[in-house]
Amino acid sequence: MWELELEQRTNIKFLVKLGKSGNEIREILMQIYRDNAMKKTAVYRWVKRFSEGRESITDEERPGRPATSRTEENIAKIRQIVRENRRVTVRSIAERVNIDRETVRKILTEDLDMRKVCAKIIPKDLLTRHCL
């Protein structure tokens, strides 16, 4: 989905340089992307930015807390917790490490490459070797 939005921003930038109005650009995007077209307010916001001379199609850095808790430190903590007890729940890991459950789930599945089998969390490579 992110690639589709960047593609639309690129098209908006191009159409602004051609001198198209916000309404024309919105109509063109609706013809091309149909249900996946950017919302009207987002189109106008990007038209305004590109009209004012902006060149970048990517979002700028925002101040504040980072959007993720998937740090090397948290990954190491979760790896250790699972090694100590393979029957541990995602909820209990989240409480111990003090991060949300979805982030714990992503760390387990994407970073540590583990899957839940019955009530145990095991590395995926063990799953494929022993369950075939």
Explain the overall architecture.
The chain has a two-stranded antiparallel sheet. It is elongated, with a radius of gyration of 22 Å. Strand 1 (114-117) and strand 2 (120-123) form a beta hairpin. The longest helix is centred in the N-terminal third of the chain and has 16 residues, at 2-17. It starts with a helix and ends with a helix. It folds into two domains: 2-51; 72-130, Orthogonal Bundle (Arc Repressor Mutant, subunit A), CATH 1.10.10. Helix 1 (2-17) crosses helix 3 (40-51). The protein has 132 residues and is mainly α. The protein contains seven helices and two strands, in the order ααααααββα.
In short:
By secondary structure, this protein is mainly alpha-helical. The protein has seven helices and two strands, in the order ααααααββα. Strands 1-2 form a two-stranded antiparallel sheet.
